[in-house]
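Table S2 (text version). Query chain:
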Amino acid sequence: MDNVSAFLRYLTAEKNYSAHTIRAYRKDLYDFMLHCSTNYQLKNLTEVHYAMVRDFVISLSQRGLSMRSINRKCVTLNSFYTYLRTIGAIDTHPLAQHKSIKAKKSFIVPFSESEVDYAIRQIDRSTFSGLRDATAIELLYSTGMRQAELIGLRVSDIDWAQQQLRVLGKRNKERLVPMLPSLITTLKSYCEQRKDNEKATKHDFLLVTDKGKKTYPSFVYRLIKLYFRGVSSKIHTSPHVLRHSFATHMLDAGADINVVKEILGHESLAATQEYTKVQLPKVQDAYRAAHPRAKK
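Corresponding structure-token output:
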């Protein structure tokens, strides 16, 4: 337990991992601790060997977890034991020979431009909650920011003069994101109404619940589901789909991929290039329509 706590403090203080990531790491490690104590009566994770890890992976698969989720838990364990090896708590890394399970990549279908437009237009902005919801959706779609970045956005992060937002991304990396005129209009209206909420003015977080408190992941997720389930038949309707839609629509319109990369806050171009795969159906249609042998 002490090693786990020290590891989580290390991720927070030294690696600048977000609170969301820390919670995920903590849950993964506690799941593994429970597995070891239940099946091997093991109380100290420094005594783990690879056979125990392998059995843990098998048990996760039997519980119906996806290969992606299993690999993520193994990444947590690998990081934890790398840390223990670094500080000299163990001599042998139990996952030294472990290889990730090949997982089928999920393909996220973005919303169409008309779906996003209709979802935004249908929101009743005559109420505070409606104006807040419109602000949240426009922020996600106009800037491509992550859900956690949206939740952490503060009123002081808005630079009205330069018409840009200061966004705190992964590992506390800041980036400046430009604001569209339509977003500025919505933001100004929302901020004016926010001033009248006494509970909201006690803190600086931009988006607040009806009770004036900071929003949270499930709140934002339900908000997106509420407005998009009626305009889209897509199975996945989440904040990340809006981020995906932003990137796809920007690239479809001819935006430089490096510009999209900077706005999204990606560290590598490879991450941004994943969004170009959505264009493949269009490429195939154009290819079949234009190639001289396509109709033979």
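Notes on Table S2: The chain has two domains: 2-86, 113-284. The chain has 13 helices and three strands.
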